[in-house]
Design brief:
heterodimer; A: Aldehyde Dehydrogenase, Chain A, domain 1; Aldehyde Dehydrogenase, Chain A, domain 2; 20 strands; 39% helix; globular; B: 317 residues; TIM Barrel; 49% helix
Chain lengths: 492, 317
């Protein structure tokens, strides 16, 4: 690839950033957390607790209650009461005040929340600090603004809330997924029973504390922690009016089956295997950054990750060379170091799944590249990985890996790019890089994906709807569309 | 024509304006939003403790300490040269800067003042800063400053010709100036503030490198905006692609507007992450600056004492 270059007469400085660690001390993590039901933390009737660990060190952080069916029942009952007596009848402008107050308190405590998000989930502190937390506060602010304007959001209809929303969220963006679901639900006048992921429950519990401090009426927001069984209890509870789930397509299908024929409304945001398409006339160096961001952001634990790279054949080799070089500059390691680009894999189970799929890629004949980087001795880490010579039929081109692994394929014509991009059961997102404006529009018309990014990737905004086609789910979160998922209405 | 074959290997066989145009159009386009985002992301890099002192020393060793004013005098040049050699009279551990950079009429005084030291003399030439005369006159001026003892020559390209698409004129002028430089190093100023778009910056970088530049430099310092991080990123990327294609190493010099150590460290982060550790040397990277040095000295003093000294403790030369 690179030509041998001359040695400078003056020797270069061995450049080193030195450790620059964010302090874990500002995270006031308690030893043990109960369930947040009806405005207070209570011990679980199940009497069971489970540990949550720091995936970067494998050290336990806290014990968290495991909500059983009786606990979920209490939470739903509290939510129902709060809906019927307080939150449902409350004037929109009053509701807005509470949501605004929560937004401000999240902003004020954003450093602490970012640190806990990183400790509990493994994502680099620079991402939780610069991406997650600003967006989380942004969503609460955005939806707070809609609370007293719902009748203007959709002309010609008289909206009303649905009732009790049961929400189950994943571990990749614990706070952001909470914000995407809780903020519109509350703004529209619903009450909430939220089940965070079992590996990342801490920040949701901190938001529960914030809600209590903000004076949110008891029962409006309830947080029940636990694993799959707890989630199933929330989703299956008869008195829940609306279910919102973000997670794997397999579980999404189970929920859809379970809810079929019931009165419950459902939105699902599931997996993805996004195509990231690079045309020959793309701004190559920026496209490299887009691809890196697309697949290595949050260790690739992103449902809309650009995990299938489609590169036009006449620039394929050059682009892959550039990509390999860029991969070698990624700093992988301690998520609490402010200079870390790629942090820890969220759990041992996820690490095993990634390892298994990467092994299958090698077995099926794809060519693997990993940079020369040293991984920490403890904790769950995986080297950023590229696969070239990938065939559309390989598992690594078909299945969602949910890790820092990129599969590279090539194409010759725009038609072929579209055909390959759409040849997947998923349809959450896609990316297109080209200098030609008309081609961006042509591609966006044809790509079956809920979001198509042009000359950028992984851009989010509270005002912009997000959601899937095909097996990536249905319903939209974010923007005005995100409100619809939490409202019923009469025609005027 | 004395250009090394490696440089010309990527050029068309017959060098004319039309062939140069298609050559320049072959470089990848630049997305400005993406370039801005990349430098913003790199600007959050945090550098601490012992690494910081090493970085401050390196910045010092990379500075072309510059005075380019109508009111310059031989005395001022002599004083600045003394400071270039020994930046902090109270602290011998602070290294000398790379070079002093002066107008042609000051070259002889700078040469005298830096004789026997590691500090080089750079002269701006080609009727700096506008460069609006015939090529013959520019070449003559370059020959003169080299005869006077300048080790390095900073020329400015013909922006009007570049923007007007007269690529051969720009190319040929650089080539002739390079010839006139002899052993002196040639830094080619693109004056990116007048080229405006990052696509222009990228193409002008390539043109200058192919024509023989030893360094490419952002600005004269007389036009705003002068050096910026996105422009520097794009030029470094152009250098990297040129090196991949030819094996020839070209240096980079952002100039103008870099006033604090914190700013300078951001440039070094972009350099390190774009071209790698091999580039962290004054042979291949320089800062064109006048006030930067004092801020660096102040930061070094701070690292040593834990306290900030008043600016009055550092000489203004």
């Amino acid at each position: 690839m690179a030509i041998e270059i001359a040695t400078p007469a003056t020797p270069p400085l061995k450049w080193d950033y030195a450790g620059s660690k964010e302090s874990a001390d500002i995270a006031n993590i308690e030893e043990r957390y109960g369930l947040f039901i009806d405005g207070e933390f209570v011990s679980p009737k199940s009497k069971k607790y489970f540990p949550t660990i720091n995936p970067a060190t494998e050290e336990p952080l806290a014990e968290v209650a495991e909500a059983g069916e009786a606990d979920v029942g209490d939470a739903v009952a509290a939510a129902r009461r709060a809906y019927a007596e307080v939150w449902g009848p409350m004037d929109g402008a009053e509701r807005a005040k509470y949501v605004f107050r929560i937004a401000r308190m999240i902003q004020e405590r954003s450093r602490e929340l970012a640190v806990v998000e990183t400790l509990d989930g493994g994502k680099p502190i620079k991402e939780s600090r610069d991406v997650d937390l600003p967006l989380v506060a942004g969503h609460f602010f955005y939806y707070a603004g809609w609370a007293d304007k719902l009748e203007y959001a959709f002309p010609g209809i008289r909206p009303r809330p649905l009732g009790v929303a049961g929400q189950v969220i994943p571990w990749n963006f614990p706070l952001l997924m909470l914000a995407w679901k809780v903020a519109p639900a509350l703004a529209a006048g619903n009450t909430v029973v939220l089940k965070p992921a079992e590996t990342t429950p801490l920040t949701a519990l901190m938001v529960a504390q914030i809600a209590a401090e903000a004076g949110l009426p008891p029962g409006v927001l309830n947080v029940v922690t636990g694993a799959g069984a707890t989630g199933a209890a929330v989703v299956g509870h008869d008195d829940v009016d609306k279910v919102a789930f973000t997670g794997s397509t397999a579980v999404g299908k189970l929920i859809a089956t379970q809810l079929a024929g019931s009165h419950k409304k459902l939105t699902l945001e599931l997996g993805g295997k996004a195509a990231h398409v690079i045309f020959e006339d793309a701004p190559l160096d920026q496209a490299i950054e887009g691809v890196i961001n697309g697949i290595f952001f949050n260790q690739g634990h992103v449902c809309c990750a650009g995990s299938r790279l489609l590169v036009q054949e006449n620039i394929h080799d050059r682009f892959v060379d550039k990509l390999k070089r860029r991969l070698s500059t990624l700093r992988v390691g301690d998520p609490m170091d402010k200079n870390t680009d790629v942090g820890a894999i969220n759990s041992r189970a996820q690490l095993e799944k990634i390892t298994e799929l990467v092994d299958s890629g090698r077995d099926e004949g794809a060519e693997m590249f990993q940079p020369d980087c040293v991984l920490p001795d403890r904790g769950f880490f995986f080297k950023p990985t590229l696969f070239t010579n990938v065939a559309q039929s390989h598992r690594i081109a078909q299945e969602e890996i949910f890790g820092p692994v990129l599969s590279i394929l090539s194409f010759r014509t725009p038609e072929e790019a579209v055909e390959k991009a759409n040849n997947t059961p998923y349809g959450l997102s896609a990316g297109v890089w080209t200098s030609k404006g008309s081609r961006i529009l042509w591609m966006a018309d044809r790509l079956q994906a809920g979001v198509v990014w042009a000359n950028t990737y992984n851009k989010f905004d509270p005002a912009s709807p997000f959601g899937g086609y095909k097996e990536s789910g249905f319903g939209r979160e974010g923007g005005r569309h995100g409100l619809l998922a939490y409202m019923d209405w009469d025609e005027e | 024509m004395t250009l090394a074959p490696a440089r010309t290997s990527i050029l068309p066989d017959r060098i004319t304006t039309p062939t140069l145009r298609s050559f320049l159009r072959s470089v990848p386009s630049v997305d400005e939003v993406g370039a801005n985002e990349r430098v913003a992301a790199l600007s959050t890099r945090s550098i601490k403790r012992e690494s910081k002192r090493a970085a401050l020393d390196l910045i010092t060793r990379m500075i072309d300490l510059t005075t380019l004013e109508g009111k310059d005098t031989p005395g001022k040049v002599a004083q600045m040269s003394a400071k270039a050699i020994r930046p902090d009279p109270l602290d011998a551990s602070v290294p000398s800067v790379a070079a002093v950079c002066v107008y042609p009429n000051m070259v002889r005084y700078a040469v005298e003042a830096t004789e026997g030291t590691s500090v080089k003399v750079a002269s701006v030439a080609t009727y700096f800063p506008s460069g609006l005369v015939e090529t013959d006159l520019k070449v003559e001026e370059v020959s003169r400053v080299v005869r006077l003892g300048a080790d390095e020559v900073d020329m400015v390209i013909d922006r009007g010709a570049f923007l007007g698409g007269e690529y051969f004129k720009v190319f040929d002028e650089i080539r002739r100036v390079k010839d006139a430089c002899g052993d002196a190093h040639l830094k080619v100023i693109l004056e990116t503030g007048e080229l405006v778009t990052l696509d222009n910056v990228r193409q002008a970088s390539l043109l200058a490198m192919a024509a023989g530049a030893d360094f490419i430099k952002t600005s004269t310092g007389k036009v705003q905006p002068a050096a910026t991080l996105p422009v520097t990123l794009v030029m470094l990327e152009a250098i990297r692609d040129f090196m991949d294609a030819t094996g020839v190493v070209v240096g980079m010099k952002p100039a103008g507007g870099i006033r604090t150590a914190k700013d300078a460290i951001r440039y070094l982060v972009v350099l390190n992450e774009t071209l790698g550790e091999a580039w962290m040397t004054p042979d291949w990277f320089r800062f064109g600056a006048s006030t930067l040095l004092n801020d660096v000295l102040m930061q070094i003093r701070f690292l040593q004492t834990g306290r900030y000294s008043s600016p009055d403790y550092f000489t203004k030369d």
